Amino acid sequence: MDPPFESVTLSGLLDKILVVGLVYGCTLILRKEAAHRVLAILASLVVAEFSSNEFGLTSTASLLHLLLTSAPIILAVIFQSDIRRALFSFWKRHKAGDSDNPDLSTTVDELAKGLQELAERRIGALIVIVGQMSLDGLAEIGTEIDAKVTSELLTSIFLPYSPIHDGAVIIQREKITSAGCFLPLSQNPDIAKSFGTRHRAALGISEQTDVLVLVVSEETGKISIVHEGKITYDADPAEIRRLSRKAIEGRRAPRVAHVSE
């Protein structure tokens, strides 16, 4: 009968190291604070098994080999709650892309309502929805807010007597993160002369990042969508909602049917 534990070869040792590495990686994902302790234990078992085999301690080597072989099952029992939590988190993120998100729907509704109120009252507004690229260094000054998007808050920010009404509101991941931010103006010489500072700022930031910008004109009460240095003037409300939703939930940069004034 073959011995319970054969001589360790280089390939066999590398194979065990690979298994330990994979187990450690899974542990690191599930519970970071326990990962280093688990790695130390697994490494110790590998060294002990190798040493036992070298010194001819076949019984000890067989026991250690059994422990290493059973490590995935043992860890699955120990970290069962973490595994459930990780799988649930993955499932939740996966489902979020396929089903309706109540919080996101509320954010889009409040944004659309706020834009409509501002447009009806002809109150100028500049709203930037952050995409995948950071605005660090581009959105200067500003007042930190960190609040849910509500039509009341948007309206109060852009009222003429508000101290931060001249700047831009930054929305990121369903929250207003800051307001009163100054954006770089576009240097494009082909911009229509009728566009004021807000539209130029919207074009300027969209030329440098992947943001989606919504602009309310105080002269006409029209709402514009600005993206990738292009502007859709007097945008359709349904299109505003659709593109805003995509931008807020962090999908790929939305494509806009660009129309100039």
Structural commentary:
The chain is α+β, with helices and mostly antiparallel strands. It has 2 domains: 10-94, no CATH class; 102-248, YojJ-like (1 (3-Layer(aba) Sandwich), CATH 3.40.1700.10. It contains 8 helices and 7 strands, in the order αααααββαββαβββα. It has helices at residues 10-30, 32-54, 58-78, 80-96, 102-120, 151-158, 197-208, 237-248; strands spanning 125-129, 140-148, 168-172, 175-182, 212-216, 223-227, 230-232. A 7-stranded mixed beta sheet has the order 2-4-3-1-5-6-7, sandwiched between helices. β5 (212-216) and β6 (223-227) form a beta hairpin. α5 (102-120) crosses α8 (237-248). The radius of gyration is 29 Å and the shape is elongated. Residues 1-6 and 257-261 have low confidence and may be disordered.
Task: Present the secondary structure layout.
Blueprint: H1 10-30, H2 32-54, H3 58-78, H4 80-96, H5 102-120, E1 125-129, E2 140-148, H6 151-158, E3 168-172, E4 175-182, H7 197-208, E5 212-216, E6 223-227, E7 230-232, H8 237-248
Parallel strand pairs: 1-3
Antiparallel strand pairs: 1-5, 2-4, 3-4, 5-6, 6-7
Helix pairs in contact: 1-2, 2-3, 5-6, 5-8
